[in-house]
Amino acid sequence: MADRKRVLLIVAGGIAAYKSLELIRFLLARGFAVRCILTTSGAEFVTPLSLAALSGDKVYRELFSLTDESEMGHIELSRSVDLVVVAPATADILAKMRAGLADDLATAALLATDKPVMVAPAMNVRMWEHAATQDNLRVLAERGVHVIGPDEGPMACGEFGMGRMTEPGAIAEAIDGFFGAYRRLVGKRALVTSGPTFEAIDPVRYLANHSSGKQGHALARALAAAGAETILVSGPTQLANPAGVMVHNIRSAEEMLAACQSSLPVDIVVCAAAVADWRIKNPAAQKIKKHGPNGKGGGAPVLELAENPDILATLSKSNAQRAHLVIGFAAETESVVQHAIEKRRAKGCDWIVANDVSPGTGTFGGDANTVHVIDDAGVENWPRLGKEEVARRLTLRIADHFKKAEA
Length: 407
Ligand code: PMT
Known about the structure:
35% helix, eight-stranded mixed sheet, alpha/beta, binds ligand PMT, globular, 22 strands, 2 domains, Rossmann fold, six-stranded parallel sheet, single chain
């Protein structure tokens, strides 16, 4: 019992609360001890009795309960566990977490805890897409909160879209994965590239691509959570810097290469950035005039391109500073796996993570990704997962790799 990992499960008020019952069963089956806090609105969907019966433990409900506080105060409750999980995490509780409110037992425990926190959002698609929810999630992720899901699909309200709580089995797997990788990369240095590069045409225009940086930033967060000293070299994105990660903000491919090289030596390299293959050979020093230099026309300018340095290929070159493990991503629109296999060979990286970026896949800029992990052993086809989950699983795979290599 003493070495069982303890999860404090906070069940908030959403229709997905019924799935939390199943989550408890999955967690117990994986050997976790589960203690629950049920919010007032959560109790509209599931009963304390069901949670107590399944978890085999008392269910905590009241902030100002004489018996609860005398047995175990909210501070101790939040700290006597190894992980706090909020499932379902409603838009309301996410907003309260972001604001630091503590007006009930659940939010007080979340504010008081010194343990890692995971949230599994569940809400209507419009609430999920609302700028306020997205902003709250962004800030929470920046503070180190781990986000699982949500998934896309039909919803209880009859709509279709993002907002379904990730299935309990997958949440339990993510929690297992979290503990699997937790602190396993302490002592390792990791370098991650993320986002697009902007290649200047003149002082106001540039060539770029659709990368949002979500996948790369999630990787940096997951590696840092596993204890690696993590450096993120990021092109221009709308994302906040991940907590506990050293960030170099760059614009062009040449700047990205310089920042990567200045970060060496590292043990792990993950190149998730969408680096422009070409730059403008001679960017104009002044804004190019639409109607020509003297306003008398001249037509559209002809842009001469030059090849950019290949950062992944450079970092994969065998020399004294080569990282032990170099991982590339391959963004493809056809023959995804085949092209990625060829790319891995051409660039000399150890693993390559292939993803389809065709229009309609939502890979660029979206929250989910379907990847194929390719190494010497072959091709692993992963199911469609949230980008955070892709990052967590890849981190776990990296930790396993080092364990084997160092055995
Ligand atoms: O940022 P998101 O919106 O979350 O989207 C994620 C993603 C689609 C950008 C990400 O999952 C991804 O696939 N990143 C790699 C994008 C890419 O540039 O792929 P590529 O097939 O063109 O390049 C192959 C590899 O070489 C990549 O690791 C890339 O970082 C690297 N490369 C490419 C060109 C270059 N000049 N230097 C490089 O290092």
